[in-house]
Amino acid sequence: MDVPIELVMPPLVLPIVKLIGKVVPSFLYQRTFFIGSACSDEGHVGIDPKFLKNSGLTQDDIFICIQEAAEKQAKKYNAPMLVWKDFPKTFHQVLLKISKSRDLFPLVSFPSALVTLQGNKTDDYIASLKSSRRQKLNKKLITAMAAPLDVSVVHLPDNQTLHQLYRLFSRTYLKGKTKFEELTPEFFEFISREKEAHFIILRHQSSHEIVAFMLCFNLGEHVINKFIGMDYDAPQDWFLYFRLWIEVVNWSYKMGAKTIQSGQTAYPAKIETGHQLIPLTNFCKHRNTLMHSISKKVASLVNWDTLDQDLALYLKAYPEEKPNIETLKEEKQ
Predict the structure, then answer these.
(1) By C-alpha distance, which of 49, 9, 48, 34 is closest to 87?
(2) How does residue 178 score in pLDDT terms, banded at 50, 70 and 90?
(3) In the prediction, which pLDDT does 333 show?
(4) Domains of the chain
(5) Can you tell me the distance from the alpha carbon of 105 to that of 282, in angstroms, rounded to the nearest whole number?
C-alpha cells in the first residue's frame, strides 16, 4: 500500500516534508507492507497452543518467522517499509523482543475505541454513562428518534443493496479528514459475505433510500463496529451517527455482546457515547538504513496529539492518557 506519510507526520516536520514533496512528489508516499488487517482495528497473530506445545517452538519463534517471511514479501512487492500494524499492549512484550533482534522501532498509532456494555439492555448502557454525556445523548436521541427513518439489520444483502451501501461508504470515506485503507468494491463485497457481518441500516420511510449504515461483525461477546456510511445531505437534526449507534447497541445486546469496538478516527462522537480509547502501536522497519534512522527519529515525535486535532483536545482534558513511548521502550529491558 502507498501510504501518505503526512498521515503520521508531526506538525513540526510536516512543512519540510511538503516542501520536499513539491520537488519529489513520490516522497509524499511510502510504499508499505503491513502485517495486520483492514477489517479489524487491532493487529493479532493467532497461534494454536497445541502446535506450540507439540513443536517445541515459542511465541517469539513464531513472530520471528513472520518477520523474516514478511521482509521477503516486502522486498518482492518493492515495499521498503514494513509495519506490524496497530498491535495492542498484549503483544508488546514479544514485539519488543523481536524489535531488538530485527531492528524495529515503535510508532504510536491512532487509538481504537471500546465500549463495555453494562447490564443486559440499552437502558443499562445509557445509565452507565457519565451524567453530562448521558444528558447530551438522550437529548440528541429524542430528536433523532423522531426522524422519518426505518431501521433494519441485514445479513448477506443482495447485490443492489450492496452497491448502495458501498456508494454511501465511499462518499463517507472521501469526506473524512483522516484516510486509511480505501476498500475496493470487491473487498467490500467479500467481507460483507462473511457469516459474522451484519449491516445496521437506516432507510427513509417514504423513499426507502439508505441514508446511513454501520457494518458490524458479531464475534460472540465482542462486536466490531468497523465501517460506516452516511448521507451528509440529510438534515443535521436527524443525528444519524447517534441514531445508528444506539441501534448498534440494541443489536449488540440482543447478540449477547459484552463489548463493542468502534474503530479509529471520529473521536468526539465516540468519546461522547462513552468509548474508552485503547492505545495501539505500530512496529516498523525501513529496508534502507538511512531512511530507517530518519523514520525512527520522526516516530519518536509522534503521539496522539500530533496525529489528530480531536485527540489533542482530548489530551488537554486527560493528559494522563497520553501514550508514553519511553515507557514502551523500557518494557523490553
Answers:
(1) 34
(2) low
(3) 47
(4) 2-109+280-330 (no CATH), 113-277 (3.40.630.30)
(5) 8
| Interaxial angle between packed helices 159-175 and 185-192, expressed in degrees from 0 to 180 and rounded to the nearest 10 | 120
Residue 236 above 50 pLDDT? yes
Mean pLDDT of 54-60: 90
Task: Taking the CA atoms of 203, 206, 207 and 211 in sequence, report the sign of the dihedral they define.
Answer: negative
* Dist CA 139 CA 50 (whole Å): 52
Average pLDDT, the chain: 89
CA distances from 233 to 106, 237, 258, 332 (A): 41, 11, 34, 50
Contacts of 182 (CB under 8 A, 6+ apart): 173
Per-residue cell: 177: 479528514
Cell of 283: 512496529
Beta bridge partners of 212: 202, 230
